[in-house]
Amino acid sequence: MSTIELFLICVATVISLVIFLVVAKFFNLWLRARISNAPVSIVNLLAMYLRGVPNALIVDTRITAAKAGIPINTDQLEAHFLAGGEVSHVVLSLIAADKAGIPLDFNRACAIDLACKGTSKTVLEAVRTSINPKVIDCPHPDMGRGGKIDAVAKDGISLRVRARVTVRTNLDRFIGGATEETVVARVGEGIVTCIGSSASYKDVLENPDSISKLVLHKGVDAGTAFEILSIDIADIDVGENVGAKLQAEQAETDKKIAQANAEVRRAAAVAVEQEMAARTQEMRARVVESEAQIPLAMAEAFRSGNLGIMDFARYKNITADTDMRSKIAGAGNANQG
Asked: Please, what is the angle between helix 123-131 and helix 106-115, to 10°?
């Protein structure tokens, strides 16, 4: 036997051994897929292995889809897995939608699954919610103020309301649609609007369904990933008289403003009084100054000969008489007192 023949035999042996090992490794998967009427070739299984794709997961999900009558090939499943999606959730959601008669194709299911990536929701949950509607508390129980929405009617009485919103997923608007928080916020806004437009809190207590009708009429589910089926008022309580409280606070504020204005006027009056007292003292000073000029004028009159001794004597007598009358008048007033 020549060297070339020996070399060819060795190569053929190695190739046969490799083929045998590959077939042995993937034989179970190939046989399981073949028996399940979802055949996958050995070459495809090897290619998945080389690309780092879990071929067992792809084969099992394809078998599940084939048993449910959903035609999906391995290339579609591989592409979605490599894109970061959950192939098992996609297949299960397609099966659930098909059994429920909800139109959902593979591409849309993959898009919803990728849109849910990074969140707590999955495409399977979205389809289940579309089949079995879920109830959302409005507001959420973990919110403050006892988990109720406060609204004030026109008569000033506040009402505390808790609603339960029944929704189902709208798969056509799931991608790009607003989330559950938006639905809760819009329903809360509608409740506040309805109560605020009521003339009296009694009207709301008599017809709580008016809140549901108004909120549903507003179309709060527009642009969201959900379709609202019903809005039920679970609890409604009468709160405090906000109008009377605000009026009391306003009256107290007006009182303080009036007191401040009165204090300003009092201070102005005191200032005017002080100013008048100062002017009175000024006038008295001028009188005293003028009276001080009298002796000087009389001396000048004596020197110039305009005033004689008899004139001065009469002046003194008149002064003394005036002082006496003033003292008598002062004593009489004191006795009367």
From this structure: 110
> What token pair was written down for 70?
């959903």
Class of domain 134-245: alpha beta
Q: What is the pLDDT of residues 62-85, one digit of tens each?
A: 888 888 888 888 888 888 888 888
Two structure tokens written together for 13: 């042996």
pTM over 0.70? The answer is no
Tokens of 261: 């204005």
Instruction: Classify the phi-psi angles of 52: left when phi > 0, otherwise alpha if psi is within -120 to 50, otherwise beta.
Output: left
CA distance linking residue 228 with residue 135, whole number of Å = 10
Whether the upstream peptide bond of residue 133 has omega within 30° of 0, thus cis, is no
**Beta bridge partners of residue 164, listed in sequence order:** 137, 232
Assess whether pLDDT exceeds 80 at residue 256: yes
The answer to whether the beta carbons of residues 89 and 122 sit under 8 Å apart is yes
Q: List the Cα angle 231/233/236 in 5-degree steps.
A: 155
Q: What tokens were used for 290?
A: 């003028």
